[in-house]
Task: structure prediction
Amino acid sequence: MPRIVTYNVHRCVGNDRRLDVGRIAAVLARLDPDIVALQELDVGRRRTGGVDQAHEIAQRLSMNHHFHAAMEVEEERYGDAILTRLPERLVKTGPLPGHPRVAALEPRGALWVEVQVEGRPLQVINTHLGLVPREQQVQAAELAGARWLEHPKCQWPAILTGDFNATSSSIVYRTLTQHLRPARRLARRRQPSSTFPSPLPVLRIDHHFVSPGIEVADVFAPFDPLSRTASDHLPLVMDFDLA
Result:
């Protein structure tokens, strides 16, 4: 059964304030995913030792990867990635619009990769939305529109995943569930799936949204000591089948 994990890795700095790319890779290796969506990666940034975190994690997991820089300052980049050991191709990367009246907020983006699962194409879109509700709403509307989910190439089955910084009571959630289904509500088993903050998770702000054609078997957030320490988010795991 295929497994996808979304994980905000907090630039690989844990709750103990220790920078450790290998620890993030170890959390993921224990989960043995086929597809990984990562947020908050540093690539070539001085604050984290100039390491290409996306490449380093992918290499440790023996996966291919695609990285999208939501923010670039000279040679330093910061953004999101999709990793997989399955056959894949990059479809699209791009920025998401910001707050219509506040220009100084952190840039956000999305990354779309087509993955071959059991010989069938699966569209996977990874994103990390902003912190301000109005900003999030604009970004969710963009993802739901013609550039992403309604793009002619975004044929079902599809998964939209990532850190949405929004709970199930938000406008963002309602916007996206007009197009896709929340995986948590489809899971055959009910398991703990809150992801933030990782030491004592009470918020569900990381999500998997799925199209028809995807059968969700399980959704859970591992709560072992390593996962609770490695980042300020827990990874969110989804096991699924293509109908």
User: Anything to note?
Assistant: The CA atoms of residues 27 and 224 lie 9 Å apart. The chain has a mean pLDDT of 95. The longest strand covers residues 64-73. The longest helix spans residues 133-144.
